[in-house]
Amino acid sequence: MGRTILIADDHPLFRAALRGAVAGTMTDAEFVEADSVAGVLEMIERHPQADVLLLDLDMPGAHGFSALAHVRGSRPELPVVIVSATADAATVASAFAYGAQGFIAKSSEAATIGAGVEAVLQGELVAPPDYRAPPPGSRSADLEIASRLADLTPQQFRVLSMLLSGLLNKQIAFELDVSEATVKAHVTAVLRKLGVANRTQAVLRVGRLAIDHGALRAAPDEAD
């Protein structure tokens, strides 16, 4: 039986390139694609038996490593390979700290990408060839935040992603096609699970997992 490969990237041409690279080593693979983190959550729910997720760090709703942390917590059995244009040592180290089983630079040749995905499926940890792990340091605060993100339900994570993008409750309600009261309940649960009192604190806390800190912003705090 063929492998089910989940591909998450907002560029159609690169998704096609990933399909071709993986198909070169796994001719019977089945591919499922998403172009946003919201799509990733839906894709994972629809394909619980998927074999691996290839995840871009820079896509709508990603907010740095928050999506990786959530997926690894909600689906610990699903290997995640980060495929990113940003492949400096600090980014690679963070990806591994938050649970990635592999990190492949987008500039890699197709054969390298295919071989890397196959290696992860065989249980190996895959890193860029020139990567050198940094000396052990204290990441306890960041890992604690990642653990809290992992505890969110998929819908709560969707709400958090929109909250981090600066949407108001009524805007989130429109996007999710739910009532504003439902959104308020989700926001309350999200803030409680993150251990914060308001949206600003949530942005600051989750911002520790961000790559581009300028992309994170919250709408003004709203009354319950």
Structure summarized in a few sentences:
This protein is an alpha/beta fold. The protein folds into two domains: 4-121, Response regulator (Rossmann fold, 3-Layer(aba) Sandwich), CATH 3.40.50.2300; 152-215, Orthogonal Bundle (Arc Repressor Mutant, subunit A). The protein is 47% helix and 10% strand.
Task: Describe the protein in words.
The chain has 224 residues and is an alpha/beta fold. It folds into two domains: 4-121, Response regulator (Rossmann fold), CATH 3.40.50.2300; 152-215, Arc Repressor Mutant, subunit A, CATH 1.10.10.10. Helix content is 47%, strand content 10%. It contains ten helices and five strands; from the N terminus they run βαβαβαβαβαααααα. The chain has a five-stranded parallel sheet, sandwiched between helices. Helix 1 (12-23) links the parallel strand 1 (4-8) and strand 2. The chain is globular. It starts with a strand and ends in an 18-residue tail after the last helix. The mean pLDDT is 86.
